[in-house]
Amino acid sequence: MNQSELYLMMTVTGRDRMTDFIRLYKDKGLEVHFLSLGHGTAQKRYMRLLALDGTEKMVCMTVVTGRKWLEVKKAMTVRLRINAPGVGIAYVIPLSAVGGKRELMFLTDGQGFEKGAEQTLKGTEQELLIVIANQGYNEMVMDAAREAGARGGTVIHARGTGQQATERFLGISLASEKDIVMIVAPTEKKAEMLQKIMQSAGPGTRAGAIAFSVPVTDTAGMILRPQSEELDEEPSQPPAADAAPSA
């Protein structure tokens, strides 16, 4: 792990335990989080084996540096005993881009991160764009993304924290209720999509969106090339049975 790079930290725990994690994160200088509800799918026998009381979960997304992750991971192990059955899990995914310098400063508030807004992780053909907007404005986000070639996305409802940091860095007061829009897109389209989203739905608009992306290693069920290329490679159709033979 590169301690100077950025990562998306995902925390999954029981709804009654998430406050403990958030309190720890704030003690470690992490103020900006995006929370959504979840539901575990493990079978009951595995739930009993892991000493999990129920399947009602909460998911927390936080942007961290590699250095901050190592600090928080140690604290979770000592203070929350995260390695014990039933407490929860946390993991990190490398970030490849953040849409805008101010937005980057907002997401990394208190972590001493001074790198530019763009990072490049080579070797992936697809990226997952994660756009966090005020609730009810996901179509504004999707309209902007479609202008750059996006075909669709998935929306998750969430609640944001870090209101003071939002006002300090972005100069606006955002609603705490959020829509998280996730869009898988070709890597070469990522920068254009981020630009369109920030121009049409970013801070200063009703959507008030911030956006970043993570690399996608592989995909299934997606058309990765323009449809015209797909059609060019289709095998030619045999002539109809009643077609007259050529002379």
Give your account of this protein's structure.
By secondary structure, this protein is of the alpha+beta class. The protein has helices at residues 18-27, 44-49, 66-80, 101-107, 138-147, 163-170, 187-201, 227-232; strands spanning 6-14, 34-39, 56-65, 89-94, 97-98, 126-134, 154-160, 177-186, 210-216. The chain has two domains: 1-94, Alpha-Beta Plaits (2-Layer Sandwich), CATH 3.30.70; 102-218, Alpha-Beta Plaits (2-Layer Sandwich). The chain is built from eight helices and nine strands. α1 crosses α3 (66-80), α4 packs antiparallel against α6 and α5 (138-147) packs across α7. It starts with 5 loop residues before the first strand and ends in a 15-residue tail after the last helix. Mean pLDDT is 79; it is low at 49-53, 226-236 and 238-247.
The amount of helix comes to 25-40%
CATH topology of the largest domain: the name is: Alpha-Beta Plaits
- Give the overall shape, derived from the CA principal axes: globular
What top-tier CATH class of the largest domain fits best? Alpha Beta
In whole angstroms, how far apart are the ends? 70 Å
Strand order of the largest sheet: 4-1-3-2-7-8-6-9-5
Structural class category: alpha+beta
Please describe the biggest sheet, giving its number of strands, its sense, and whether it closes into a barrel.
9 strands, antiparallel
Rg, Å, rounded: 22 Å
Integer count of domains: 2
Mean pLDDT across all amino acids: 79
CATH architecture of the largest domain: 2-Layer Sandwich
Order of helices and strands: EHEHEHEEHEHEHEHEH
